[in-house]
């Protein structure tokens, strides 16, 4: 698989981590996910930012060749 696709999928996974606590509102895992919400949101934001910057870097590198 192309590395750009993997980076894009990592960004999507980061967004999934950000919105996961909002999706789980009821059920047996709601309390567990709610306790992890700050960690999941922070991790998701870091993943999205890092891989977005990597994609931008690769795009600029490819355009300059």
Structure commentary:
The protein has 65 residues and is mainly alpha-helical. The protein has 3 helices and no strands. It starts with a helix and ends with a helix. The relative contact order is 0.18.
Provide a compact summary of the structure.
With about 60 residues, the chain is mainly alpha-helical.
Low-confidence stretches: none
DSSP strand tally? 0
Strand content is under 5%
What global shape is seen? elongated
Count of helical regions? 3
Average pLDDT: 86
Count of discrete domains: 1
The proportion of residues forming helix, as a percent range, comes to over 70%
Note the run of SSEs as H and E. HHH
The biggest beta sheet reads:
none
Alpha-beta classification: mainly alpha
Distance N to C terminus:
22 Å
Cα gyration radius (Å): 15 Å
Topology, please?
Blueprint: H1 3-23, H2 30-35, H3 37-64
Distinctive features:
single chain, mainly alpha, 85% helix
């Amino acid at each position: 698989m192309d590395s750009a696709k993997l980076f894009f999928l990592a960004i999507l996974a980061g967004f999934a981590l950000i919105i996961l606590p909002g999706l789980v509102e009821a059920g047996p895992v709601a309390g567990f996910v709610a306790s992890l919400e700050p960690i999941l949101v922070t991790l998701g934001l870091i993943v999205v930012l890092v891989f977005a910057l990597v994609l931008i870097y690769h795009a600029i590198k490819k355009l300059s060749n």
